[in-house]
Amino acid sequence: MSLDPSKARSERPSREGLTEYLVSEIMSNRLTPTTRLPPERRLAEEFKLSRPIVREVLRGLQERGLVEIVAGKGTFVQAPSPAGGARSLELHYRRSDATARDVVDARRMVEAQTARRSALHATEADIEALERCLSQAESGGNIVDRARSDITFHGLLARASANPVIETIFASIAGLTFEMMLVSLADPDVERLGLPYHRRIVEAVRARDPGRAEAAMIAHLELAESMYGDDYDRSIDSLARRGLGRYLEPSISLDTLVDEAVAGLRDDFGPDGAGVSSVKSDVG
């Protein structure tokens, strides 16, 4: 592949100039998905910048979901996806120490409408995928596998809404939602009371009953208000890190689990996929 270093240098010979140039090339599709960018060393030489600055630019593009940096292989242009486009928003939420209350409030606004629209717009393939995912969740497994089934169910529902904006908004809170699920599933009472609402939501979607689907989703999310207690206004990230220590092997980090689960949403949203990410985690 070939880039035009003179263009970026003439407009703004800086970190910002390289960023703007690469974004323009990607967004215009002159750099197509799966294209491998030149190595950092070559980019630094061609664009007259230091390698640390080039590395910072590439990491910034990765946060925005425009490229993927694969250790030992290189940097590749990413195909557009809701999960990728929402990544920078999720980083902002984390830096703001979003609480369990914040996440539930956002989910209530987004997912009530998601459930309603899914009852109106879900295809038979969407409904079958939700059913398969629900069966996986009901079959048990360790806490991480159950949380992965849970986040995939809600992600599939967002997709079934047939609204790409709703899907992207949900993707932007998927990481925090997954953390909240990990915390919730550690309490057997929350899981026992919460899981049946998934079945009610699917039944309402299959019956094409938007009002019932919305009501079931709202009731599902309101469980958190009554069961989180004093933790409701604490950072969900800190709650997840505190509560999962007894479940995770030392080699597994919460960040890794969240990244795998959110990546799994993108990987599993094929027309035949129900699913839960195939990446397995070591959980005690």
Structure description:
With 284 residues, the chain is mainly α. It has 2 domains: 5-80, Winged helix-like DNA-binding domain superfamily/Winged helix DNA-binding domain (Arc Repressor Mutant, subunit A), CATH 1.10.10.10; 85-268, GntR ligand-binding domain-like (Four Helix Bundle (Hemerythrin (Met), subunit A), Up-down Bundle), CATH 1.20.120.530. 67% of the residues lie in helices and 3% in strands. The protein contains 14 helices and 2 strands, in the order ααααββαααααααααα. It has helices at 5-11, 15-27, 40-46, 51-63, 82-85, 87-95, 100-121, 124-138, 143-160, 164-185, 188-206, 210-227, 236-243, 254-268, and strands at 67-70, 74-77. The chain has a two-stranded antiparallel ribbon. Strand 1 and strand 2 form a beta hairpin. The relative contact order is 0.12. Residues 269-284 have low confidence and may be disordered.
